[in-house]
Amino acid sequence: MLVLVINSGSSSLKYQLRDVAAGAVLTEGLVERIGMPAPDGGAPEVADHAAALEQVDAALHAVLGDRAIDAVGHRVVHGGERFAEPVLVDNEITRAIERLNPLAPLHNPANVLGIRAIAEKWPEMPQVAVFDTAFHRTLPEHAWRYAVPEWLYTRHGIRRYGFHGTSHQYVSSKAAGLLGLSDDAFDGVILHLGNGASATAIQAGRSVDTSMGFTPLEGLVMGTRSGDLDPSILVFLARQGHSADEIDELLNRESGLKALAGSNDMRTVVEAAEAGDARAAVALDVTAYRLAKYVGAYHVAVGGAKALVFTAGIGENSWQFRSRVAERLGALGVELDADANLVRSKEPRVISTPGSKIPVLVVPTDEERAIAEATAAVVNAR
Ligand code: ADP
């Protein structure tokens, strides 16, 4: 089955064409600056998502030959409390995703634009929505509830949802496989460390806690996001006269590694620390320490992790950061194999010593692959 995976943003459209049975990527690309003025200030080069899709279609023609796309799978950020699984999209589902717009004002409206553009161009095309929150629908109430008045939840949907679910689910299943366990026999902690970062506690193959909450801002120190902080800081800033938009910008785009070290790129920060930059060293310490605290908490949450799994850009590539985190986990009996930790590979692998009380794994994530496979499964089950 040929599946076109779409990640539709407000001004960009990322796509990947996959042959699911062969596990192959046939082509991929990105259309940018949708609806944005041309560099000379003139009319946009790509007027809207429909125009972007025409560009994608032209690029696909070149590789498809006489074959045709069988289905489209969309990455949808917010599935709210309704969606625990990928679903076949129809008008009612599209409207349900739209009703969740207030919870993900930057993302869900853009996802819907992508869905509608496909529906216009190829009305008969099966479309599947794969939600970033869905895997975390199994969070128990003690993990998803904030200790705030009930109306915040009933009126505004304020609770913890969690994100990166597609990646956490894919990686947890691959990790279980590497340890010779079935998915539902796997207890572990997954660390998805990219520009956005989250940790998930997995018990019996299900998500029982995760570090991102109502939005992707909660939890770990990220590239440009603060992660956890005292909520009174926001109140303090508001009283100082900072607007909601300013505070949003400050915590989502000007914080994290960028604030601590001057760069949101882990490679740059590690190199600077190695060259003796004191700010960069502190940034790594704060980031690794905060992550290690979550590992300790989630080890408890799952009743004893059988594995600790690193994934995404930093988790897969930065042996320096992995070793800083592991150094803080001595109390759990975690011990990395220094040579295995240095290996660069696209394959899932164990990087701890045989004596490590908890095996430490690196498992490359592949969200597009997971979305394509989920899409094929939903379409085949129709
Ligand atoms: P996104 O969340 O945008 O998908 P990625 O998963 O691609 O992000 O991760 C981006 C992060 O991974 C950046 O901080 C980048 O510095 C880091 N990274 C990528 N390659 C390496 C590498 N070889 N060594 C260290 N860090 C890396």
Layout of secondary structure:
Elements: E1 2-8, E2 13-19, E3 24-31, H1 49-64, E4 71-76, E5 87-88, H2 91-99, H3 108-121, E6 127-131, H4 141-144, H5 150-156, H6 165-178, E7 188-193, E8 197-203, E9 206-210, H7 232-239, H8 244-253, H9 256-261, H10 266-274, H11 278-301, E10 308-311, H12 312-317, H13 319-327, H14 338-342, E11 349-350, E12 360-362, H15 367-380
Parallel strand pairs: 1-4, 4-6, 7-10, 10-12
Antiparallel strand pairs: 1-2, 2-3, 5-6, 7-8, 8-9, 11-12
Helix pairs in contact: 10-11, 11-13
The protein binds adenosine-5'-diphosphate (ADP).
State the main characteristics.
Nucleotidyltransferase, domain 5; alpha/beta; globular; 6-stranded mixed beta sheet; about 375 residues; 15 helices; about 40% helix; binds adenosine-5'-diphosphate
H-E order: EEEHEEHHEHHHEEEHHHHHEHHHEEH
Query: Class of the largest domain, according to the CATH hierarchy?
Result: Alpha Beta
User: How is the largest sheet built, in terms of strand order?
Assistant: 3-2-1-4-6-5
Task: Say which CATH homologous superfamily of the largest domain is assigned.
Answer: ATPase, nucleotide binding domain
Largest sheet: 6 strands, mixed
- CA gyration radius, whole angstroms: 21 Å
Low-confidence stretches: none
Helix content: 40-55%
CATH fold-level assignment of the largest domain: Nucleotidyltransferase, domain 5
Beta-strand content: 15-25%
**Total number of strands:** 12
Backbone structural class: alpha/beta
The appropriate CATH architecture of the largest domain is: 2-Layer Sandwich
Q: Could you tell me which ligands this complex binds, including any ions or cofactors?
A: adenosine-5'-diphosphate
Shape estimate: globular
